[in-house]
Amino acid sequence: MAEPLSTDKIEEALADLTNWSHEDDKITKEFTFDNFRDAIGFITRISFEAEEQVHHPEIFNVYNTVTISLSTHDAGGKVTEKDVALAKTIESLYNN
């Protein structure tokens, strides 16, 4: 079972993740793209990485906007290192 991070540890991790926020026991970020196709392409790239990490985000898409929320189910829906690691991966996909 994954161990939840303290609020201090979460805030420390978010300092390295641009525009991610922590609320309701999740870390979340909204990503904006030029069009729907680019947004869906981003979601597809995330899906491959999430499968590799065996950790799956909540994904919400409307047209060119994708909102990602991360928490760990086996840690009681709290934020863990697994969420931080996937957030870093998602950032690298967005910045490429």
From TrEMBL:
Keywords linked to the UniProt accession: Lyase
E.C. code: 4.2.1.96
InterPro entries, A to Z: PCD_sf, Pterin_deHydtase
Catalytic activity: (4aS,6R)-4a-hydroxy-L-erythro-5,6,7,8-tetrahydrobiopterin = (6R)-L-erythro-6,7-dihydrobiopterin + H2O
First-level EC class: lyase
Pfam families: Pterin_4a (PF01329)
Gene Ontology terms for molecular function: 4-alpha-hydroxytetrahydrobiopterin dehydratase activity
Keyword Oxidoreductase: no
PANTHER family given in the database record: PTERIN-4-ALPHA-CARBINOLAMINE DEHYDRATASE
UniProt record similarity statement: Belongs to the pterin-4-alpha-carbinolamine dehydratase family.
Name of the protein in question: Putative pterin-4-alpha-carbinolamine dehydratase
Record organism: Fodinibius salsisoli
